[in-house]
Amino acid sequence: MSDNKREQERTELYRTIWALANELRGSVDGWDFKQYVLGMLFYRYISENLTTYLNKGEWDAGNTDFDYSKISDEEASAVRDEMVQVKGFFILPSELFGNLLNRIKKADKDAKDKAEKDGKEVEVADLDENLNEILQTNFKNIEASAIGTPSEENFKGLFDDIDVNSNKLGPTVIKRNKRLKKLITVIGDMDLGNYQDNSIDAFGDTYEYLMGMYASNAGKSGGEYFTPQEVSELLTKISLVDNKGNMKIEVNKVYDPAVGSGSLLLKFAKILGKENVRNGFFGQEINITTYNLCRINMFLHDIDYDKFDIANEDTLLSPQHWDDEPFEVIVSNPPYSIKWEGDDNPVLINDPRFSPAGVLAPKSKADLAFVMHALSWLATNGTAAIVCFPGIMYRGGAEKKIRKYLIDNNYIDAIIQLPDNLFYGTSIATCIMVMKKAKTDNKVLFIDASKECKKVTNNNKLTEENIAKIVNEVGTREDVDYFARLAPYDEIKEQEYNLSVSTYVEQENTREVIDIKELNAQIEQIVARENVLRAEIDKIIKEIEG
Q1: How far is it, in rounded angstroms, from Cα 389 to Cα 399?
Q2: What burial class does residue 211 get, using C-beta atoms within 10 Å of its C-beta: 0-12 exposed, 13-18 middle, 19+ buried?
Q3: Rounded distance, CA 67 to CA 28, Å?
Q4: Closest CA relative to residue 370, chosen from 257, 502, 463
Q5: Angle at 275 between CA 270 and CA 277, to 5 degrees
Q6: What is the rounded distance in angstroms from the CA atom of residue 70 to the CA atom of residue 392?
Q7: pTM summary value
Q8: Rounded to an integer, what distance in angstroms lies between the CA atom of residue 179 and that of residue 177?
Q9: How far apart are CA 246 and CA 257, in angstroms?
Q10: Is 435 helix (H, G, I), strand (E, B) or coil?
Q11: pLDDT exceeding 90 applies to what percent of the chain?
Q12: What is the mean pLDDT of residues 318-336?
């Protein structure tokens, strides 16, 4: 399929989503309502995922009339155990999203037909009174199907944030169910095609578009959980550059200690292909709602349950992947300058992640605690790319001591200054710290990419050209006037371990350069001409007077 056709499909999909958001917003705040939209999208996805898988198996065996959605629950129960083992979950035919959608449409039609027959207005359809109960039962049964199996943790609580009895949906059961019914109908009518064959990764694209749309309108509350796609792409490509400047085509495992909605991890699936992340995707998230959204995101991008491990805990105090580290690639956009226990907790200074620096990140600014955690879990041949608040690059005290440890041990590969206003919820110009444990030189590459962007509405955005220029520089590590500088260790030490890009990359003087000699010559010509004109004027005046 051509790029134009794909773009047309994507545009149409986004137009539908935008209409859905406008139609459904009201009593529920946009950022809160995303849980309902994305949750219902997920419900549709896993229903179609299971149905497609079972139908294909039967069709390949010659049973071309088979349709899982149309068989009885009793017949379907025979494959429950097998499906839980293969897919990680099971859904009875009667509880499939598509069959619920059909029931809703039939109930509405029956109510309309009855009203026309009786010559009355349309009465309440049957499902308007108990749709919430049906949904709650279906969600619980899906989660329960994984209990006691390897996929239990990946499905546990996935639907918790879709509160079908919330007053936010409406003050009465009928009104709540009408809104739920509208949500199911609109999502059910979206042309997402076959999730395996769709040329634009429709379910995954829908998720990313919705998250971006909600985050951009939610300010800090939404933006802190979502990294814009172009920034995710930049981080991914930077982390794939090896010591020879080549781009890796496969990696072992990828990890994000502040995983949010999972967009950073999933960029590797999109750029490399999920099969080229051989041992899976790992992450940890402290916020329970975002943790649920991240797991949903994994499924919507067709990542099987045994290929991802997302944990819900505080990464700095209770890391959950000790048995999985080290990681070949670590990428993250951790929360900026959040508070943590720091030296109030006497155990932390002995934690093997933080103890090598001999000091803990300040209690009021945990930024470098995330950096030290990432470094500790980084494989010898790996790369970590972490979005950082600019203050950690130059402040003194404990942060300077940690920078000294990182530089003295040659762990920092590059510091990249990004443009301002890239992220939702903050206009601050952030940086990327790139770390490696097996560098081939004792230098740090400083890149000033502060002007590598274009203005889009209220935000700046990295273009494909901007990303390519930055990634190419990470690979070549060559000095480029006003853009990049490879600084030796001794110079950084002389600068007292200041890692601000402006310290090493000269700013281009955009003011017009004035040639003094040429200017003086021009002034002499003007003065001479002025004298000639005055003489001519004096001559004319004398003639008039005479």
Answers
A1: 12
A2: buried
A3: 37
A4: 257
A5: 75
A6: 60
A7: 0.84
A8: 5
A9: 26
A10: strand
A11: 59
A12: 95
